[in-house]
Amino acid sequence: MSFEKALEELEALVARMEDGKLPLEESLAAYQRGAELIKFCESRLSDAQARIAILDGGELRDFNPEK
């Protein structure tokens, strides 16, 4: 699954849960799936940050498009 697909699914789950019309069991399942998606997205972001640090000589700094 891509980061974008996971984020899209998470946003859809949040919208369904905020609607307040899900039965309890579906709400619990949606919450569990949402927690899994958050963990996945955080992992992907962490991996991307580590790759950027490697590509940038081990130092993370603000992006400056003029360089």
Per-chain topology:
Blueprint: H1 3-19, H2 24-55
Helix pairs in contact: 1-2
What do these coordinates show?
It is built from two helices and no strands. It has helices spanning 3-19, 24-55. The longest helix has 32 residues, at 24-55. The chain is mostly helical and 67 residues long. Helix 1 (3-19) packs antiparallel against helix 2. The chain is elongated and about 50 Å long. Helices cover 73% and strands 0% of the residues.
End-to-end C-alpha gap: 33 Å
Strand proportion? under 5%
Q: Helical segment tally? A: 2
Mean pLDDT figure: 86
Please give the largest β-sheet: none
How much helix is in the residues?
over 70%
Features:
67 residues; mainly alpha; elongated
Quick overview:
With 67 residues, the protein is mainly α. The chain is built from 2 helices and no strands.
